[in-house]
Design a protein that fits this description.
The chain is an all-alpha fold. The protein folds into two domains: about 150 residues, UbiA prenyltransferase (Tetracycline Repressor, domain 2); about 120 residues, Four Helix Bundle (Hemerythrin (Met), subunit A), CATH 1.20.120. The protein contains 16 helices and no strands. α3 packs parallel to α10 and α9 packs across α11. The longest helix is centred in the C-terminal third of the chain and has 28 residues. It is globular.
Length: about 325
């Protein structure tokens, strides 16, 4: 009886060994590589690029220039996100929010992801340098390097200020857009940079509050893990106040009109109200409401900048 069972088991193992593994479909591989670039994040970054170009031009730049700038910016951001996934694959496998990404699941090899990310970065620099100008290409490449080396490799695993300093990388698209339109950088461009730089901490900390246990499990020193919920909420309010003030400072610095002033005031008021609500009644639903609104806030604020170039004039 035992001999028969052993023979059956050996036969089964042999059958499994000789059956070829199903190859992943081409469309599945494409989707996996695409997901590495984090398209939803890229779409928000691109929303901040075109209005910056419009403010720099005081109108609408050429469609060809916009297209080349967006393609280059998309590739640069996609490359940065992909290389980020390569370095963070160990963390991602521990967190419920990220464990289904292509690298933790084995859908893509780490080497393949790294090569893909580097290729995207090289393509971005080439397109911007040749099709737009060298300054925009250098800024896009600098954003990629900063995000990977300063935020991902260094700060994310070592400092509670990781998202504050690392947020500089995500604030670069308006600089790339401004440089694409003007060929130089001016004070309004730095204010546009400052808006996203100050927006990033309350935006991301609201999400980190919701997934605090995930970050603690992965050993990532996000502010809610290191300093606690109360201090995080206090910092959210502080950064939100400064953010709204800087957004309004764009009016005198860039000569914005009444449409942007009114939009920034209303949108900023909503941001402050949700930040204070999170501070006073900290709950998972209040933090996610702030996170969701912060996405809408940034998109509408930059759309208002572009629209102001026509409405107010």
């Amino acid at each position: 009886m035992l001999r028969q069972e052993l023979m059956q088991q050996s036969t089964l193992e042999l059958a499994v060994a000789v059956v070829p593994r199903a190859r992943p479909r081409l469309i599945d591989t494409f989707r996996a590589y695409l997901s590495l670039t984090k398209p939803r994040i890229i779409s928000l970054l691109l929303v901040t690029t075109v209005p910056a170009m419009m403010v720099a031009e005081h109108g609408m730049p050429s469609l060809w220039l916009i297209l080349l700038t967006l393609v280059g910016g998309t590739l640069a951001a996609g490359g940065a996100n992909t290389i980020n996934c390569y370095f963070d694959r160990d963390i991602d496998s521990l967190m419920a929010r990220t464990r289904k990404r292509p690298l933790p699941t084995g859908a893509i090899s780490p080497e393949g992801a790294l090569l893909f990310g580097v290729a995207l970065g090289c393509a971005a620099f080439t397109i911007l340098a040749i099709g737009v100008n060298l300054l925009s290409a250098v800024l896009a490449l600098a954003a990629l390097a900063f995000y990977v080396l300063v935020y991902t490799v260094w700060l994310k695993r070592s400092s509670a200020q990781n998202i504050v300093i690392g947020g500089a990388a995500g604030a670069m698209p308006p600089l790339v857009g401004w440089a694409a339109a003007r060929g130089s950088l001016d004070w309004p461009a730095l204010v546009l940079f400052g808006i996203i730089f100050l927006w990033t901490p309350p935006h991301f900390w609201a999400l980190a509050l919701r997934y605090r246990s995930d970050y603690a499990k992965a050993g990532v020193p996000m502010l809610p893990v290191v300093r606690g919920e109360a201090e995080t909420n206090r910092q959210i309010v502080l950064y939100s106040v400064i953010l709204v003030a800087v957004s309004l400072a764009l009016v005198p610095v860039a000569g914005m009109g009444w449409f942007y002033l009114g939009s920034a005031s209303v949108l900023g008021g909503g941001f402050l109200w949700l930040a204070v609500r999170q501070w006073r009644w900290s709950r998972p639903d209040t933090s996610m409401a702030l996170f969701s609104y912060s996405l809408l806030y940034l998109a509408l604020l930059y759309v208002a900048m572009g629209a102001d170039q026509f409405v107010a004039r």
